[in-house]
């Protein structure tokens, strides 16, 4: 049988069952309300009935108290019940009245109390009968619409997540290709090699010049010129490299006071300091540019690496989401299959699976 036809047949039977149950509920509600009126009438009679004069005054007061409590409580409980279904909620409370009437009340008004108890028992028996008959005409509830709707929604969500996953994988491939194309490793190796060479040449020339200047520190100290340049050179020979014009001017001034090897050293410095100092500064400037370029490459490399990691993280999240949706879909399909099996049992026929 086609599912659509099976569902129509089920709804038809369900409607019939609901109508029968409604009639049964109305029938037993009517019976209960009649019993309820009988009990209320008996309570009214009990309430109005005179206590025999032969009863001791002390016991009479106890009986009056027990009667008032019994009548008021039972009446209040009954007045809250308007249908057979509501009765079920109050049965435990009503059952207490079989024993909560009070010892003296039962002794004095035994006939009236037993009459009420008899009616309460009949009410309880009728409710039990009602529940039994309702069970006989019940139909097992079967959920289809919400399951089918959930399956459709879950499938759409799954399709979207899978599309998004493919887009992320494509994006990852593009980023990894971009990373490879940039050749960061080769570029960094080349720059680092150039930086190393530059640093080495700078250090070599600085050591050579400082060594020459250091040789002049002894005669300069003996001269006691008191000049600023002399004092700075005595503190640190690199001052001459950093201030070549100033140092050369000072050196030319004192050249005539130097002899032998000191004079030869001074002549070498006078001849080479300016050009070598310029070369060192140019190399340092170039080195600074290379260091800056290296930082830019590292920054670009880091940004692409971070982007790759971000995409990979999103891929893992999507895969986890897809896994959950697939599990949910399997569970919904299992629920649908169970519902179809129930429906087949109710209709006593096989049903085509969607």
Structure at a glance:
The chain has two domains: 3-139, no CATH class; 148-347, no CATH class. 86% of the residues lie in helices and 0% in strands.
Question: Which keywords apply here?
Answer:
354 residues; 11 helices; elongated; mainly alpha
Characterize the structure shown.
The protein has 354 residues and is an all-alpha fold. The chain has 2 domains: 3-139, no CATH class; 148-347, no CATH class. It has 11 helices and no strands. It has helices at residues 3-48, 57-79, 84-95, 103-108, 110-136, 145-182, 184-223, 228-235, 239-242, 244-254, 260-347. Helix 7 packs across helix 8. It starts with a helix and ends in a 7-residue tail after the last helix. The mean pLDDT is 90.
Count of domain modules:
2
Strand content: under 5%
Distance between the termini: 11 Å
* DSSP summary: helix tally: 11
What structural class results from the helix and strand content? Answer: mainly alpha
The parts where pLDDT drops under 50 for at least 5 residues are: none
Query: Any idea what the radius of gyration is?
Result: 53 Å
Q: Tell me about the biggest sheet? A: none
Question: What portion of residues is helical?
Answer: over 70%
| Overall morphology | elongated
Tally of DSSP β-strands: 0
Overall mean pLDDT? 90
Which series of helices and strands comes N to C? Answer: HHHHHHHHHHH
Write the layout of secondary structure elements.
Elements (H helix, E strand, L loop, with lengths): L2 H46 L8 H23 L4 H12 L7 H6 L1 H27 L8 H38 L1 H40 L4 H8 L3 H4 L1 H11 L5 H88 L7
Helix pairs in contact: 1-2, 1-5, 1-11, 3-5, 6-11, 7-8, 7-11, 10-11
